[in-house]
Write the structure tokens for this entry.
Amino acid sequence: MTLTTGMKTLAATALTIVALPLMAHAAGEGPQIERQKWSFAGFFGRFDQNQLQRGFQVYKESCAQCHGLSRIDFRNLVQPGGPVFNEDAVKGLAATYEVQDGPNDDGKMFKRPARLSDKIPPPYANEKEARSIHNGAYPPDLSLIARARGLEYHGSVFAHPFHLLKDMVAGYQEGGADYLYALLTGYVEKPADFKMVDGMNYNRAFPGHQISMPPPLLDGAIKTDGKPTYQDGTPATVEQMARDVVAFLSWAGDPKHDERKRMGLLVMLYLLITAVLLYFAKKRIWKSAH
Ligand code: HEC
């Protein structure tokens, strides 16, 4: 490589570093969304089992009639790192669903109650059926939604690389959860001059602000003994239900989260100890080598 091509490559790289955040900035037109505090955030984050149990209850009562959770098996609800429900209770829940199995000895497909090893059955036979029910809109499967969404950056263009670096160092991965929380709590009065299409709902967080999903969380959706609380005594306000269902969906998108982070920390510790040992070994070996 001659000196001039080298300089050209260098200039091109520098230009890309400056231009990338500019391009990303130009694409971002969504509203500013606040970051929330999550028990599962950061390197030491863990899911809160009680919160996951509450979150599943919210999903079942308020979302399951429209949204599937097709990547989750009933048995996942029993396994460590998740909501860890009682196994018999989940078996009972599974048995209330019907799934197709077969072929049997006569070559026929048949229906049977679901078991722990089955996936949670979707509310629709296929996407066309879903769209025909919802006026053409498609309620997406929620298994991976917390990973499929994120936050847009709104600060100064030139601070963007530093912002990215800061998030990397802090291990920030909860953009999807922050967006979902903002979406579920984002149904507010529309501004007077905002034009809405019939049948749509105004939402502060949704890109474009018009969403076909009606407000899914309503006060009083969850009741215990006639009071708006969960069974564990937590008040079931809209904010609390949103927080819990978002934690649950974050787990659904990453069921091995707790194990992954624990393993990561152990590996870092192991590497640190090995590095120290190697350092002293090297010093010893080279001490007398003149
Ligand atoms: C009455 C049916 C219905 C219920 C109940 C419902 N949704 Fe939706 N949801 C929809 C429809 C329809 C869409 C597609 C919206 C669109 O594209 O305009 C949607 C879209 C979404 C999206 C995608 C938003 C995006 O960024 O693209 C998320 C996330 C979501 N719903 C979460 C939930 C959660 C969580 C619950 C339960 C608390 C819930 N929904 C309950 C019908 C429903």
Confidence is low (pLDDT under 50) at residues 24-28. The pocket of heme C is lined by residues 58, 62-63, 65-67, 134, 137, 139-140, 145, 149, 180, 183-184, 211-214, 216-217, 245 (CB under 6 Å). The radius of gyration is 25 Å. The CA atoms of residues 43 and 208 lie 34 Å apart.
